[in-house]
Amino acid sequence: TASQELFSLCALAGVGKSSLVHLLCHNQVLGNPSWTVGCSVDVRIHDYKEGTPEEKTYYIELWDVGGSVGSATSVKSTRAVFYNLLNGIILVHDLTNKKSSQNLYRWSLEALNRDVAPTGVLVTNGDYDREQFGDNQIPLLVIGTKLDQIPETKRNEVLTRTAFLAEDFNAEEINLDCTNPRYLAAGSSNAVKLSRFFDKVIEKRYFLRDGNQVCHFS
């Protein structure tokens, strides 16, 4: 099958996204993760519509952009360079840190070049105005990391609390431990969700737009 390049961008809060990107691209645990300074890039091979007559291989380039929600305007402007022509967004949050999930709303606004005070988003209690993203056509995926660090007795409580995120963003949800590849094992529900998401990104890029060959994904 002929390969085509798909350029993509992963740019969210520092909640284990470097470990996640490494797992997505290499199916291996990142042995010595560090803070991302600037932008790091990795590549994943994805078979679009795998197992069907339409199957085709794409190279998906993941851009892991460093930063924090409270950073200076100049830093935000630098990050904005990587947000052009988004075709998909992975919203990554730390399941052990409630604030990181609340900040996904602000990160999504920034990634969509709408870095303004999010009126209607009350991050203190999870209330969310879905109309702010009513016109968004970009595929979204919500991934919660550090599942292994939540005690079994607290897991249901935490996952119930974060379940609203996927609903608010009209996205599928994956929760995992980036130190254990089995969470993305072939045939697992997580792997199916991930594959379905990448299919949507590819369809938006190659079948729902013009012939320009550049695609970005956050």
UniProtKB/TrEMBL annotation:
Alphabetized PROSITE patterns for the sequence: RAB
Gene Ontology molecular-function annotations: GTP binding
Keyword annotations: GTP-binding, Nucleotide-binding
Keyword Ubl conjugation tagged: no
Domain of life: Eukaryota
SMART domains from the UniProt entry: RAB
Known function: Required for KRAS signaling regulation and modulation of cell proliferation. Regulator of KRAS prenylation, and probably prenylation of other small GTPases. Required for lymphocyte development and function. Not required for myeloid cell development.
Family: Belongs to the small GTPase superfamily. Rab family.
Protein name: Rab-like protein 3
Organism: Copsychus sechellarum
